[in-house]
Each structure stands twice: as C-alpha cells, then as structure tokens.
Specification:
With 110 residues, the chain is mainly alpha-helical. The protein is built from five helices and no strands. Helix content is 55%, strand content 0%. The longest helix has 20 residues. It comes from Sparus aurata.
C-alpha cells in the first residue's frame, strides 16, 4: 500500500476503532474515547506537547466545533491536520506562526 493510502486508511481505522459504540449510531468520540486515542495513538513528544490528553476539557473545547460534547470524524480530521502542520513547522522551521489563524496552536521554537 502506498504511504498516503496507509495514512488515510489508518486515520479512518483509528477513529472507527475508538468511536464505534456498536449501537448503529454515527461514530463520535466522547471525552474518554478521545483521551484514550491521544494517550495510546500519539507517542511522539513533539506532538504530545501540542495536545495534552491530561487536560481533556481544553482539548474537547478546541476540537468540538459544533459544541455537541463529542468529536465527529470531521473534527477528528481537523485535529490530525493541525498536528501534521505543527510537525511540519517543527521539521522545516516554516509556518505555524502564532496568531496567524483561529485557534492556531503551533509556534516556532528556535
């Protein structure tokens, strides 16, 4: 499987693994499920510092754009995209300047 194929299928699989309640409802992550995802699926120190699983209330507020108390797949994708942008910024030293976008969490560290 090509690398980007693998990234996309892994994102979907991770979301469904943690969000699937087995009751036929639309998959969403509640606070506990989101905390579990962050603790178990993010191991890189650079990324762990961007979203702190210990402060789940703040993480939920940041991700839950529709304010329903759960994270849907679109909100989850936004989270992963933001983490990728932070990692890119750290690797390249470009982008991610604080204050550039709404709720931008990345800041260049020199």
């Amino acid at each position: 499987m090509a690398r980007l194929d693998q990234v996309i299928t892994t994102m979907v699989d991770i979301f469904l693994e943690y969000a699937n309640d087995g009751e036929g409802k639309k998959p969403k992550l509640n606070k506990e499920e989101l905390k579990k995802v962050l603790e178990q699926e993010i191991q890189s120190p650079e990324l762990k510092e961007k979203i702190n699983a210990d402060d789940i209330e703040e993480v939920m507020e940041m991700l839950d754009k529709n304010h329903d108390g759960e994270v849907n797949f679109k909100e989850f994708c936004r989270c992963v995209s933001d983490l990728a942008k932070c990692y890119y910024s750290k690797k390249t030293g470009k982008g991610g300047k604080k204050g550039k976008g709404k709720n931008q969490e990345c800041e260049q560290e020199d």
